[in-house]
Design brief:
This protein has about 230 residues and is an alpha+beta fold. It has three helices and twelve strands. Helices cover about 20% and strands about 40% of the residues.
Length: about 230
């Protein structure tokens, strides 16, 4: 009987020893996200790959003059259809040529106004950036964080241009300034407001200028998920 108890005790001790010899898994700390990632993700960048097509109307109101362009971006086919002043043009973004370059330039402009937070990820190899933890926003005069990006001098439709993004603790853009050729004085300053959710994308549907007689807005937005 004692022999049985001794064998059982030894087996138990061996079992305990085996358990304590197991190595504890090392959990690597999650890398700190860059400010570019934080701004993009605040606007729903993680949902972008789930979008198959995007439709929107880009509206410009300056004083009493209104203009607009309608876009349908088929992401799966990388095909864009644009309608402006009654003219319709369709092209593939992978094969832009002299006949489609003008339409593509307009699309790039309008898309940037809508998806600039995502371009911080898409274009990050093409610009340098600087973050100021506190800066005065040009329109609201609020104390916000400021991200400045300056594009390289080669490539793209507007090389060397600079953008100043103003945002709060939620990393949603509240205002921005465009400076052509990285000049000191901004060419355009607007708000980013009236955020709405479209298929997980948080889009600022209204951009108002400081003077009150200029506004860019987005209507007819449709983000179709895959």
């Amino acid at each position: 009987m004692n022999r049985i108890k001794l064998i059982s005790l030894l087996a138990f001790l061996v079992f305990i020893s085996c358990k304590t010899d197991k190595k504890t898994a090392v959990v690597e700390p999650e890398a700190e996200k860059s400010v570019l990632e934080k701004i993009a993700q605040a606007s729903g960048y993680d949902n972008w790959n789930g979008i198959s097509s995007l439709k929107f109307t880009f509206n410009v109101d300056r004083d009493t003059i209104h203009s607009e362009r309608n876009w349908h971006w088929n992401l799966a086919a990388n095909e864009v259809t644009g309608i402006s002043y009654g003219d319709t043009a369709t092209y593939n973004r992978a094969s832009v040529d002299s006949t489609s370059a003008r339409v593509d330039a307009a699309f790039i402009n309008d898309k940037y106004w809508m998806l600039a937070p995502f371009n911080l990820i898409w274009d990050q190899d093409n610009f340098t950036y600087q973050l100021d933890s506190v800066a005065e926003a040009p329109i609201s005069k609020q104390a916000l964080q400021k991200l400045t990006i300056v594009y390289g001098s080669e490539g793209g439709y507007t090389p060397g241009d600079a953008y100043d993004f103003y945002f709060g603790d939620d990393y949603l853009i509240q205002e921005w300034a465009f400076r052509k050729g990285n000049q000191a004085d901004p060419n355009v300053i607007t708000t980013w407001e009236a955020y709405q959710d479209f298929g997980g994308l948080k889009i600022a549907t209204v951009h108002k200028g400081a003077s009150g007689n200029f506004q860019i807005s987005f209507t007819g937005i449709e983000a179709v998920r895959r």
